[in-house]
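COURSE: Structural Biology Practicum
ASSIGNMENT: Worksheet 4, Part C
STUDENT ID: 0417
INSTRUCTIONS: Below are two proteins. For each, the amino acid sequence is given first, followed by its structure token string. Answer the questions at the end about the second protein only.

PROTEIN I
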Amino acid sequence: MLLVKRAGLPVWCRTSLSSVRAPEGMPRYFILVLDDISERKRAEEALAALNAGLEGRVSERTRELKDANTALLNEVYQRSFAEDRLKLALHEKELLLKEIHHRVKNNLQIIISLLFLQAKMNDDPATTGALTASQTRVKSMALVHEKLYQSENLGSIDFAGYLQNLVPNLMVAYGAENRRIRVNIAAKDLPLTINTAIPLGLIMNELVSNTLKYAFPDGRDGELSIEGHAEGGTMQITVRDNGIGIPESIDWRDTESLGLHLVQMLTRQLKGSIDLSRQSGTEFRFTIPVREGCCFIWEKPR
């Protein structure tokens, strides 16, 4: 009940009415009790106002969260769309690079065929030999591009896989495929960039060719080994055969052999070093520094 004092101030009261009865049960009078509950009423009103404020803030925060969630979903969509476009662009780039390597390989193959025809039509053994050597050199470069467009990783090729294709090709080129020359290749975990694969492939082409042509005369048996591994900041490669070896009288660093000149020139191009051992045949040892992103990609074995 709301009452008003004389001063005009409202007062909230709680009323309770009870009756006093006579012995015969008839009411004699009534007692009215007024309890001032203004403070409690004001507290209830303050609590109601506080609840209303909290509900308002909750509603406002809910709207803010909803707006933030909508913005986040939109950002996720935009990022997903951008990632899809990036993946598509990368896929198109990979296809383009594969096509480029494929076309380069095909163009080099045309050159190889022309050299083959020229050698076949030539009667001079020296000229024929030079043309055959040129064929194998161009093949070693074409093989790099072939491996690149066949590889899932366009940035590098596996050195061991490259050698396993290069050596049989050379054996066919020099008529050694039917001879009993054992070939051992141990060069795992050596992924090479194209900047290293081409010069290193040419080096391997020259050394393997020399082995097949000169190390095992008169059709004798022999063994050719190529080993490679990463060591610290360098790549160590060894090409070894148990043939007749290079005579001590020949200065291999100053010779008229175009192949050995190429080996030295290409080793310098790779900023590497080369040593020769003439014990029990011929052994060339190469040390090539690892230059990430330029010459060699070293990935630790898993």
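PROTEIN II
(use this one for the questions)
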Amino acid sequence: MPLLDQLLQSDEPSVRLQIRLGLQRADDADANDLRQQVRSSARVTTLLSERVPDGTINAHPYRKWYGAHWVLVMLAELGYPPGDPTLTPLRDQMLGWLFSGDYLDSLGRVRGLPLLHGSIEGNALWAVLSLGLADERAEQLAERLRQAQWPDGGWNCDRKASGRSSSFAESLIHFGHFPCMRRCT
């Protein structure tokens, strides 16, 4: 059986959705049906299983793979349907952290250039837009990213950076989600 057929028969709805969207140009009805299957999939159930009664996750928002930031990014990657208001507490938890004094104070400058975790802000922005959870803070995140862009078009968070070039790792994820942010020279 050809690989494409195997993928289209996967038990995981997010795999079928990505193939249908990326390779076969699924129609809206087909894509919406697959997104609803993603919503009730075992992976999504597991990702959301750590929520407490107020809808947040009782962990730091950036705790690898379990915090609100990573859960929202993974839901967006899986193709979770946009506009689910039950995800709002996770959005608020993630953005509350990204706009907190502690987080903002951790940024800074190196050789006159702003330090920023472009991959963190980029993933957060992409997730809230993909999941239909954007509020006024999404615009503020986009502006923060724009203002922190280095002359070569990327971002850097390394306090020991030379100031000559941005970080490939910090920039790659952001460019993947937002190619329109590349500076034109």
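ANSWER KEY EXCERPT:
Q1: The first strand starts at residue 109 and ends at 110.
Q2: The CA atoms of residues 39 and 83 lie 12 Å apart.
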